[in-house]
Write a structure and sequence with these properties.
Blueprint (H helix, E strand, L loop, with lengths): L1 H30 L3 E2 L12 E3 L5 E3 L10 E6 L6 H15 L9 E6 L6 H15 L8 E4 L3 H11 L1 E2 L1 E3 L4 E3 L3 E5 L5 E6 L5 H11 L7 H9 E4 L4 E4 L1 H39 L6
Parallel strand pairs: 4-5, 5-6
Antiparallel strand pairs: 1-7, 2-3, 4-10, 8-9, 10-11, 12-13
Helix pairs in contact: 2-3, 5-6
């Protein structure tokens, strides 16, 4: 009898393992392909049409002025968790920058759910602008919705791969910020719910090709390159050494110039004293 019980337990255990493996395999199949295909250098189509928060039809090209970089985040407003966290992260990151959307850069928040309405986007826009607390940012942070054809064209252009999970009635999608140049060219990707302020600043400087930011920002971008594995900007040893060499030359050159000026002034004083006419008595 004991032998029969052991056989039964082994049978049940095997059945449970098989069921778990099937569920795990099914789970993996559902999420297969979700993620980012990096498409640096590709340009998003400017003629794609969307609807803004007022219900007006707009083209994507309207948001590319050739100068200001664009921070693109793809979300859907019925998302149970991740998209809300990502938008909170966007808001916090924007708030940490001294730059303002609409001035130095543009923010595009576009829903990838074709069933969502512009009214939903308008409500989300109002919510996050209130949370940001910068009234002058309203002209630079745009919330758009669109149909499946235009959404698919945009997500394909930036390599944003998502899937509808029927069993959960929700989208599986990456949480990634996409940085575009002022012409709509893909410049950089940063993954996560929230970006460090320093990474965001450098990514915007990089996307603007130096049109945004100070000379210090350009030096920092030269010395720090984005590492996709680390998902952050890290020091480029070779460029750091070159920058340090240039700085050393400039410092030494400046010191030599100062010494040269002082020596010349000293010589001039001596000559002036030697050849000056004696005063009459």
């Amino acid at each position: 009898m004991l032998f029969g019980v052991l056989v039964a337990l082994l049978f049940v255990s095997g059945a449970l393992d098989t069921a778990h493996a099937q569920r795990t395999g099914q789970h993996r199949d559902e999420y297969e392909g979700v993620g980012i295909d990096r498409k640096h250098g590709d340009t998003v189509p400017h003629d794609l049409t969307f609807t803004d928060h007022t219900g007006q039809e707009v083209t994507l090209g309207q948001y590319f002025d050739g100068e200001r970089p664009v921070l693109l985040n793809l979300v859907y407003h019925d998302c149970p968790m991740l998209c809300g966290l990502l938008l909170n992260g966007v808001t916090k990151t924007i708030g940490s920058l001294e730059w303002t959307p609409g001035d130095e850069y543009t923010v595009l928040t576009i829903s990838f759910n074709p069933r969502e309405s512009f009214e939903q986007a308008a409500a989300q826009r109002e919510r996050y602008l209130d949370q940001l607390g910068r009234p002058n940012a309203a002209d630079g942070w745009h919330f758009l919705t669109g149909d499946a054809e235009n959404i698919d064209a945009l997500t394909d252009a930036v390599g944003f791969n998502l899937r509808w999970i029927e069993s959960k009635q929700e989208f599986a999608h990456p949480t990634t910020y996409v940085f575009l140049s002022g012409d709509g060219m893909v410049s950089q990707y940063i993954h996560g719910m929230q970006m460090p302020q320093s990474d965001t600043r450098q990514a915007l400087v990089e996307a603007s090709d130096g049109q945004v930011g100070s000379p210090v920002d350009l030096v920092m971008l030269y010395c720090f390159q984005f590492d996709p594995d680390a998902n952050t900007y890290t020091a480029d040893a070779f460029n750091l050494m070159k920058a340090a060499s240039v700085l050393t030359v400039l410092v030494l050159g400046g010191m030599l110039y100062v010494f040269w000026r002082r020596e010349n002034e000293h010589v001039d004083d001596q000559l002036e004293g030697r050849f000056s006419m004696p005063s009459e008595t």
